[in-house]
Structures are given as C-alpha cells and as structure tokens.
Amino acid sequence: MYGGCTQLREFLQDNGQAYMLRVASSFTLTPAAGTKLTCAQAAKQLAKGRNLTQKAERLALSTLW
C-alpha cells in the first residue's frame, strides 16, 4: 500500500493486519534524534552493513579451518 493513505494504514494497524508500506526513495526517516536519512540512504547503509557482516563471517569461518 502507498504510505500516504493514513486512514487505511490506521485501520490495518488497529485490526492487527500486516501490510507492506511503499514510500518514495526520497522519503525522509528519523532513526535517532538529530539524524535524518532518505529511504535510499538507509537502504544503502543496511546493505553495506550486511556485506561487512558476511565478510566477517567468512573470515571467522576461514580461521577455524
């Protein structure tokens, strides 16, 4: 569903119904006080962190053998 439909979103939340929210990549998030990211920036940071985690796991496994 598109993120701009607040009535539908509130209805689904009130009824415990799962839903997927779609917003523009330029939509601004505030994950912490004083921090603002667009959805595109947040997705890039999450992907980057995941790659680092995967590399660390491979390194840890390679040192075990």
Count of the domains: 1
Number of strands: 2
Query: How are strands sequenced across the largest beta sheet?
Result: 1-2
Major sheet: 2 strands, antiparallel
Structural class designation: alpha+beta
Overall helicity: 40-55%
Task: Point out poorly predicted stretches.
Answer: none
C-alpha geometry: elongated
Order of helices and strands: HEEH
The number of helices is: 2
The fraction of residues in strands falls at 5-15%
Task: Provide mean pLDDT, rounded.
Answer: 77
In short, what is this structure?
The chain has helices at 6-14, 39-64; strands spanning 28-32, 35-38. It has 65 residues and is α+β, with helices and mostly antiparallel strands.
Report on this model:
- There is one protein chain.
- The chain has one domain.
- The protein is an alpha+beta fold and about 60 residues long.
- The chain has a two-stranded antiparallel sheet with strand order 1-2.
- The chain has helices at about 5-15, 40-65, and strands at about 30, 35-40.
